[in-house]
Amino acid sequence: MFSTLRFFAFGAALLVASAGAQSNCDRFYAVNTGDTCDAISARQNVSTFQLQYVNNNTVDAACDNLFAGEVLCLGLQGEDCTTTFVVGSTDTCATITTAYNISLATVLANNPNVNSVCSNIYPGEVLCVASQVFQYP
Ligand SMILES: *[C@@H]1O[C@H](CO)[C@@H](O)[C@H](O)[C@H]1NC(C)=O
Ligand SMILES: *[C@@H]1O[C@H](CO)[C@@H](O)[C@H](O)[C@H]1NC(C)=O
Ligand SMILES: *[C@@H]1O[C@H](CO)[C@@H](O)[C@H](O)[C@H]1NC(C)=O
Fold it and tell me: Cβ(84) to ligand 1 under 6 A?
C-alpha cells in the first residue's frame, strides 16, 4: 500500500516535471509510437482544438513532431472539455447540433478552429460537444 502510494507520487511528479509549465494540467498522456493528434484525441476524449491549444508550445501546427514517451497535457483545469465527438464522413454541424441538442454558437465557441459556417470540419476530427461553454483564454 505504502509503496503503491509512493509510486504514484513519484509518477505524478515526473509527469508534471516533463510537461513543464502546465502545473494546472487536468489530464496527462504519454505518446505511443504511431500516435497522431487526432487518434489521441479520439481515444482520450479531447477535442482536436484543445489538444493543440494546450500543447502549442511543443506540438507544431501540423502535429508531425510527436515522439514516443512525450508527455502531453490533454486539458487544463477548469477548461477541460471531456464531452467529445469524432466527426464521421456524413456529419455536418447540423447533424452534430441535433444529436447533442446544442447550438451552433456553442459548437463554435468550444471549437475555435471551426469556421463560422462550419465548412472546415473533417472526418476524424474531434469536436467538443458539451453544452457548457468553455472559456479558452
Ligand atoms: C471517453 O468517453 C466515452 C463515452 O463517454 C467513455 O466510455 C470512455 O471511457 C472515455 N474514455 C476516456 C479515456 O476517458
Ligand atoms: C498557445 O496557448 C497559450 C495558452 O496555453 C495561449 O496563450 C497562446 O495564445 C497560444 N498560442 C497560439 C499560437 O495559439
Ligand atoms: C434541448 O435543450 C434545451 C435547452 O438547451 C432543452 O430545453 C430541451 O429540453 C432539450 N431537448 C432534449 C430533447 O433534450
Answer: no
Residues 98 and 66 in one domain: no
CA nearest 126: which of 79, 78, 74?
74
- Residues 6 or more apart from 80 whose CB is under 8 A from it? 26, 27, 46, 50, 74, 134
- Tell me the ligand closest to 133's alpha carbon: 3
Which CATH number does the domain housing residue 89 bear?
3.10.350.10
Of the listed ligands, the closest to the CA of 106 is 3
In this predicted model, what pLDDT tens digit does every residue of 27-81 receive, in sequence order?
Answer: 999 999 999 999 999 999 999 999 999 999 999 999 999 999 999 999 999 999 9
Q: Residue 84 pairs with which residues in a beta bridge?
A: 128
Cell numbers found for residue 104: 451552433
Question: What's the pTM value of the predicted model, to 2 decimals?
Answer: 0.84
72 and 99 both lie in a single domain: no
Domain contains 135: no
C-alpha 37 to ligand 1 mean position (Å): 17
Count the domains in the chain.
Answer: 2
Which ligand 2 atom minimizes the distance to the CA of 57? 1
**Domain coverage including residue 38:** 2-76
Q: Are residues 42 and 93 in the same domain?
A: no
